[in-house]
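Before relying on records like the one below, remember that each one covers exactly one chain. Contacts with other chains, cofactors or solvent are not represented anywhere in the record.
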Amino acid sequence: MFGVYDPTAPQKPQEQMTQEEVAEQGAKSMIAFMQSCPGKTAMAGVSGFGLGGFFGLFMASMAYDVPVGTTAVNHISQLPLKQQMKLQFTDMGKRSWNSAKNFGYIGMVYSGVECSIESLRAKHDIYNGISAGCITGAALSINAGPQAAFVGCAGFAAFSVAIDLYLNSEAASPPSNDYDE
């Protein structure tokens, strides 16, 4: 039913298409976009933004003792309840927004670099992830100097290897002691 979408192939005018043909053409163009590097980069940025926002909200809700805008002298427990809630929700919003921006940015950079490397090498293997992790880690920490860039490169590459190995372990054969035959 779905073949490879070729935007250069002659198309019937949309007025002459049935509703199913219009839907199929729309689905094919959406799939083609999602498989392109800009599409993958955008999806990684959006999903990273959402995950980062949720993570920031969760982490901020765990640190409710002293919000960012207060000082040690003005402890939150000494404030009225309405002001405590206002400070906490403001702090949760700031932390959630910052975390969302950071996760989205990292996701976009990593995904874009990995897709570009995969396109250049014309291979899909673990070395794409290692290279993308190294480049992303170095790029994120280059302003702190060459030593930080090296550590960022090594850290992101190691994390990328760990994630790739974990995700690819699902495709491996089951262990020999598996009795679910």
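The two ends are 34 Å apart (CA to CA).
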